[in-house]
Amino acid sequence: MNISCLNERLSIAASSILSLWLFLSGLAAAIGNAVVLWLFYKNKSLRTISNRFLASLCVADFLVGLVIDPVWITIRFATQPQRAHILKQVINLLWIHSTAATVFNLCCVSVDRFIAIRFPFRYQNIITKQRCYAVIIMVWLISLFLPFSRTLVGNRTNVESLWFSLTLITLVLPITVVTLCYFSIFKAARRQASTIKSGGNHQNSNEKNAPACAMQNYKAIKTIGIVLGVFIVSWMPSIVVSVVDYVTASDKCVDHKLAYVVWPWIEAIAFTSSTINPWIYCFRNGEFRNSLRLNCHRCSCLYSRDPVDLSLKSDTSKISCARVHASQELYARQSSDTLMYLVSIG
Q1: Closest CA to 227 of 281, 168, 282, 292
Q2: What does the H/E/C string look like for the chain?
Q3: Which of 65, 111, 112, 130 is the 20 to 30 A CA-CA neighbour of 300?
Q4: Which residues make Cβ contacts (< 8 Å) with residue 141, sequence separation at least 6?
Q5: In angstroms, rounded to a whole number, what is the distance separating the alpha carbons of residues 99 and 105?
Q6: What is the Cα–Cα distance from 284 to 278, expressed in whole angstroms?
Q7: What is the pTM of this model?
Q8: For the ranges 3-12, 23-32, 107-116, 207-216, which has the lowest average pLDDT?
Q9: Residues 8/256, Cβ–Cβ less than 8 Å
Q10: How far apart are the first and last CA of the chain?
């Protein structure tokens, strides 16, 4: 066997590119998810059960940007520890945790939307606030304790089998569930759109709002589709490399190259999903987008620091700020009514 292959590492140029990539994606992930969580905290109209699952996903993505990415830059590229080093074990544990937290929360978001559209009249009975919190807590507990299964395995063969099993649990199973939910939602939305188009729901007491609600659901479906696409593109390479690593475990050179040369690029691609997710939600979800706009206007009205503006503030500017506050209150009431109706029909 060629011993020199076991000393192969990322080049300085590759390490620099990946470090810059993770720094920028981590910064964007921290800012984007912090904005979504801030809007969720500031606006009661956004605190629906569905958005609580979304907030949990944003917490996972926020931690990736704030904690995981800097740790990866420091350990993976600056230190580049050996396989048996304690720092290598640390990033393995963090990888399992961040992956599980992200994909399981995304799975919860998709299943919640599936239940809301597939069982619209039973949604409030199936997904209660208590069950929502119970599921979120369970997801985080599993994602916290799952990494420690790695510490219970010492044999090399068992380690490879464990990684393959974790790949199935944290990636293959969630991708399957999310994909099935998406296609079920898509089929239900097409049936609903056909019914509304043909006038089949004219007997509904909420007839006037049905087309608008159908459009909201269709936009939500497209958002899930985009998120699903980003999820598959981001995490599918991890599945492929994990399978290849498991199959070629006997070849030490291939195994080493996958672990130290290929895998860092796979990790960077996977962590980028935490950057993309919040921007999809903000720019595609009109409620979050309008809340962001109104809160920014409110902050500009309340925290103007120009001395001239403060001393010479005219009645017109005061009226403008009052209009912003009034618009925000009106939007909150309208959003609350719309969200309650969406929950009732899925």
Answers
A1: 281
A2: CCHHHHHCCCCHHHHHHHHHHHHHHHHHHHHHHHHHHHHHHHCHHHCCHHHHHHHHHHHHHHHHHHHHHHHHHHHHHHHCCCCCCHHHHHHHHHHHHHHHHHHHHHHHHHHHHHHHHHCCCCHHHHCCHHHHHHHHHHHHHHHHHHHHHHHHCCCHHHHHHHHHHHHHHHHHHHHHHHHHHHHHHHHHHHHHHHHHHCCCCCCCCCHHHHHHHHHHHHHHHHHHHHHHHHHHHHHHHHHHHHHHHHHCCCCHHHHHHHHHHHHHHHHHHHHHHHHHHHHHHHHHCHHHHHHHHHHHHHHHHHCCCCHHHHHCCCHHHHHHHHHHHHHHHHHHHHHHHHHHHHHHHC
A3: 65
A4: none
A5: 10
A6: 10
A7: 0.77
A8: 207-216
A9: yes
A10: 60
d(CA 112, CA 105): 11
With 0-12 / 13-18 / 19 or more C-beta atoms within 10 angstroms meaning exposed / middle / buried, residue 281 is buried
Distance CA 134, CA 132 (A): 5
Place of tokens 């860092």: 264
- % of the chain exceeding 90 in pLDDT: 20
Contacts of 237 (CB under 8 A, 6+ apart): 266, 269, 270
pLDDT in tens, 149-164: 766 665 555 677 777 8
- From the centroid of its chain, how far is CA 44? 21
Residue 320 pLDDT greater than 70, yes or no: no
Q: Which one, of 97, 82, 114, lies nearest residue 180 by Cα?
A: 114
Tracing tokens 């729901």 back to the chain, one arrives at: 201
Please report, as a single letter, which amino acid is at residue 211. Answer: P
Question: Which tens digits make up the pLDDT trace of 63-87?
Answer: 999 999 999 888 877 777 776 678 8
